[in-house]
Amino acid sequence: MTVVHLDAMLREFAPDGSLRSDAPTVAALLDELEGRYPRLRSKLRDETGAIRKFVRVFVDGEDVSRSPGPTASLAGAQTVDILHSIAGG
Amino acid sequence: MAERKVRVLVGTRKGTYIVQSDARRKSWKVGAVSNTGRDIFHVRADPRHAGTLYAAVNSGFWGPILYRTLNWGKAWEEVATPLTPVSGKREPRFDDKAPPLPVVNLWHIEPGHASEPNTVFVGADPHLLFRSDDLAKSWQPIAGLNEHPTKSKWNPGAGGPCVHTVIVDPRDARRMYVGISAAGTFRTDDAGEHWRPTNRKVEAGFLPDPFPEVGQCVHHVALDPANPDVAYRQDHGGIYVSRHAMDDDWDRVGKARGGPKDDFGFCVTSAEALPGRAFFVPLQGEARTTPGGGLQVWEWNDTGRRWRTLMGPKQFPGDFGVHREGISADALDPAGIYVGTTTGQLVYSADAGKRWAQVPYQFPGIHSVQVTV
Question: Structurally, how many domains does chain B consist of?
């Protein structure tokens, strides 16, 4: 069971800040989140399934957003943090 | 009789504003910003449903999002956003050999014909047009345009590969026009099943063939309110007029007819009370800023075939940019004309261009201005 944390800016689309999931991969977790919070659809990843440029997914503290990306395994993972990346100056 | 309200819908780099006045258009009230911090490429009123506005929101973090209000902006809600149907279990509608491309930005929202009150169109990047027949609950890509046989010859404009102009002929729901950067204008007479390029005699000086069938970088188009067969076009290659529903050769009326010395620019509009005329803000082609040291508005009178300067460069000195949706006219008489700049000034004339003033508010950079009365 993985604990998933969503950052504050995502509360607009997903009111719960944290939840638990048994999803085996990041892609499956995102599917699950989009099913639970329909407004998350297309916000974290685009129509091709790619994680958006300024979204970061950390699995046990490691950024997997680009590599390996959505196929990243969550087997044995304790925590997933989904954050927006700093896009300032 | 209730006083008529004039609302200027302002899409900016940092949110949506509604600026309100009465028919005198002397004092203005700037409402609270919505969708704070997000790029709003276009805000559009739906004249078929009083109080309904749509906003094309493009978030750097979360991608394109379409918003709507049913009460003049008191409350906005997210509605379905048109997306390319390539994910999940939805069937792909595009060429399987082509890589699927996500929608990057929503550019233009166009309510459908008065006889089709549930229809809405959205033009988007990359080179996509969508149609909804249930007031933005769901969207269908318009394959006749999105998969047009000439598409391999289309290029992106500086703002991206976008369908940025969508016009429904007010006399015929089946006839529509689109403007695409950099592909040019297209017309359909069968509600989007088939489209034909309509770019004859529009110069594309940046291509080996300067007068190709497609590839022109149209910037915006407005129809004449009294005769919708007349179209006014601000193109990368100058200012043009078509007088036969784009079936004819476009007539370059810009600098060749005594118009702006540099007839580059992005925006054009027409006004209900001023048939036979169109309004432009000339820009320098290289810098994309106003020439002559100040903001200017020029009027083309197609009936008299002559130009007139409505606003000279001295009243608002500086180097201004104006985007393609940055000019609009209201439906009052005398017509109000409104210009929003990329540095956040909203200037207007309440008397068809005789006198100009600035709304006393510093907006973020303005992408779009639209007026509803």
Answer: 1
